[in-house]
Amino acid sequence: MTAETKSSDTRVLIVIPAFNEAGRIRQVIADLRRHVPEMDIAVIDDGSLDATAAIAAGAGAIVLSLPFNLGIGGALQTGYIYAAHHNYDLAVQFDGDGQHRADQIRELIAPILAGRADMSIGSRMMGKGDYHFPLMRRIGSWLIGLITRIVTGRRISDPTSGFRGTGRRAIEFFSRNYPQAYLDSAEITVWVLRQGMTVEETPVEMHPAEHSSIGSLLGVIHAVRVCLALIIDRMEKKFPEGPPAQMPRKEG
User: Fold this and answer.
1) DSSP 3-state assignment of 75?
2) What domains can you pick out in the chain, each with its CATH number?
3) If pLDDT is split at 50, 70 and 90, which confidence band does 112 have?
4) Phi-psi bin for 147: left (phi > 0), alpha (psi -120 to 50), beta?
């Protein structure tokens, strides 16, 4: 069965974490509807103080509203829980600020549809487009990539990319385990590889980010913190992929 044939039978959920994105979310959803109309869209309203949830609902998206701001990790895990419980075959992480491009989604998920990968990472560093990293961000990304290679043996060209596709095994895993700390995208790559899942990078084009969390000296310091977290992850036990076993009831 070809990837094209398989894709027509595959249920895909686009997961968009959003915090105070009222000014952008309508256009993001409209762009997705134009390029991938067959895919469902779930906006995770991460405790927004503006009209993000109402605008997303009005645009036809599934809206999951969190009672307060959990951060990117909590928002994404909420999306994966929804995807797992509603039996989606594939999920796509997609930013609500307009950085990710809807016309790149089919290329991103192709390795998963072809059965080659459990997770596909959209890479800005593989020669497609002319995305420019500021110096400090490039340093932070390089450092995280170096540590990722040391702890996993895999070279990831764009370890901080949040534009990712995940297959069913990864969806189930992320619904139970997802990093809640800074720069989750780097940590989940290590977690996925340690579970024995397959990861493939796909060249994609993206729009420049208006605000980058690692585009300054402070961001590089945060990148160092992420590297320490990756090293600690490597020393810890692998996560169980299934639900925890129930303890036997005590009699009497």
Assistant:
1) helix
2) 3-235 (3.90.550.10)
3) very high
4) alpha
Please answer whether residues 96 and 111 qualify as being in contact, where contact means their C-beta atoms are separated by less than 8 angstroms: no
What backbone torsions phi and psi does residue 200 show, to the nearest 5 degrees?
Answer: -130, 140
Asked if residues 165 and 174 have their Cβ atoms less than 8 Å apart, the reply is: no
- pTM of the complete model: 0.84
* Separation of alpha carbons 96 and 31, rounded Å: 11
Residue 19 corresponds to which tokens in the numbers above? 């915090």
Name which of 30, 17, 19, 97 is nearest 59 in CA terms. 30
Q: How far apart are CA 152 and CA 150, in angstroms?
A: 6
4 by Cβ neighbours in 10 Å (0-12 / 13-18 / 19+) ranks as exposed
- Decide: residue 222, CB within 10 A, 0-12 exposed, 13-18 middle, 19+ buried: middle
- pLDDT digits over 146-200, tens only? 888 888 889 999 988 999 999 999 999 999 999 876 556 778 888 899 899 999 9
105 vs 163: CA distance, rounded Å: 9
Query: Is residue 50 pLDDT above 50, yes or no?
Result: yes
Cα–Cα dist 90/149, whole Å: 26
